[in-house]
Design goal:
about 325 residues; alpha+beta
């Protein structure tokens, strides 16, 4: 049900301001509050080309690391249904090709919470710090998780999501794509950006995921309602709870971010968190390098999405400060 109102005007203004701070040609805002769509706005065009298609409801944005919330769901699925014995199983059980002394006591929990301490350099996996002692955002952990899901379930990330969530919810503007479509944004990025990668894989293991703002909001709403949509339990609520509750190991420094299954989760106040200071405990968020953000605040029965077609942070733009203030601005409207 759509009941657009002016309560969230400052959120819209915040997103518009961010769109002027990053290098983008178009943006979108979508907010669901108390089970109603209260914000749905689109600006600009899908590229900087002349006569470019305007950003609209079915425009799909490159979500970058927001894809990790879908990977986290697939891992939670594998754990819940017993394909993986425990979140605290050592990953050496599943990756015998990697030297066991390198993996040491690294567990699935460590991979899910960015506390694994592994880093890949020049094609080789190396240890950066002892597992469970610190926090670092490294792609090697996500790569291992996608392989883990395929090995244990026999299904790809994409197949699990399609069968379990996308089809039941009718999400037709969400997926991993080998080829571009007319409703895809053009990702605006610096030339030769080393972080930009394309892929022909549609298995859910690469960074080629495009999602519309409205589909991303539905994904967040699905988690907000713990898998129960319209009175139908699409997936067990325990699976969602596993994905969105704090799984970070005890003992890491209090100022390091806290994570669920790759989601950033608000628990204790932490100086290095990406979640706004006024956003309450139990909220969870995911942010991409394209500045696309999905914030879920159960205490306020709210889902907020912002989407842009930028890639990276231009000089003078502080992404952490910006995404925190996005959450705080949302809270001011509740």
């Amino acid at each position: 049900m759509m009941e657009l109102n002016s309560q969230f005007t400052s959120v819209i203004n915040h997103i518009k301001q961010t769109s002027q701070s990053v290098d983008c040609s178009g943006a979108a805002a979508f907010v669901i509050h108390n089970d109603n769509i209260v914000v749905e706005e689109y600006w600009g065009t899908q590229s900087k080309e002349a006569n470019a298609r305007i950003v609209q409801a079915n425009t799909q944005f490159h979500v970058a690391s927001v894809r990790k919330s879908y990977i986290g769901f697939a891992v939670a699925y594998a754990i819940y249904y017993g394909y993986i014995g425990s979140i605290d199983e050592k990953i050496s059980l599943y990756f015998p090709e990697i030297k066991e002394e390198l993996l040491s006591d690294t567990t699935i929990r460590h991979l899910l919470t960015h506390t694994h301490g592994l880093v890949e350099k020049n094609g080789c996996i190396m240890r950066e710090f002892a597992a469970g002692t610190s926090w670092a955002y490294r792609s090697v952990g996500v790569d291992l998780l996608t392989k883990l899901v395929k090995e244990t379930t026999g299904k790809t990330i994409a197949a699990i999501l399609q069968d379990t969530v996308f089809t039941p919810l009718g999400l037709q503007e969400t997926g991993w794509y080998a080829d571009e479509k007319e409703n895809f944004v053009d990702v605006i990025r610096a030339q030769n950006d080393s972080l930009w990668k394309t892929s022909q894989s549609v298995n859910g293991d690469k960074m080629n995921m495009y999602v519309s703002a409205r589909d991303l909001a539905k994904w967040g709403y699905f988690h907000l309602k713990q898998g129960n949509i319209g009175g139908t339990q699409i997936v067990p609520k325990e699976l969602i709870q596993l994905a969105t509750s704090v799984q970070s190991p005890d003992g890491i420094h209090r100022d390091l971010p806290q994570n669920g299954c790759l989601w950033f989760v608000k628990d204790k106040q932490a100086k290095k968190t990406e979640i706004g200071a006024t956003v309450p405990k139990g909220s969870f968020q995911i942010l991409g390098y394209t500045t696309v953000t999905l914030l879920v605040i159960p205490e306020k029965n709210l889902v907020a999405v912002r989407a842009f077609n930028s890639f990276g942070s231009p000089e003078g733009y502080n992404y952490l400060e910006d995404v925190r203030s996005f959450g705080d601005t949302v809270m001011e409207c509740c």
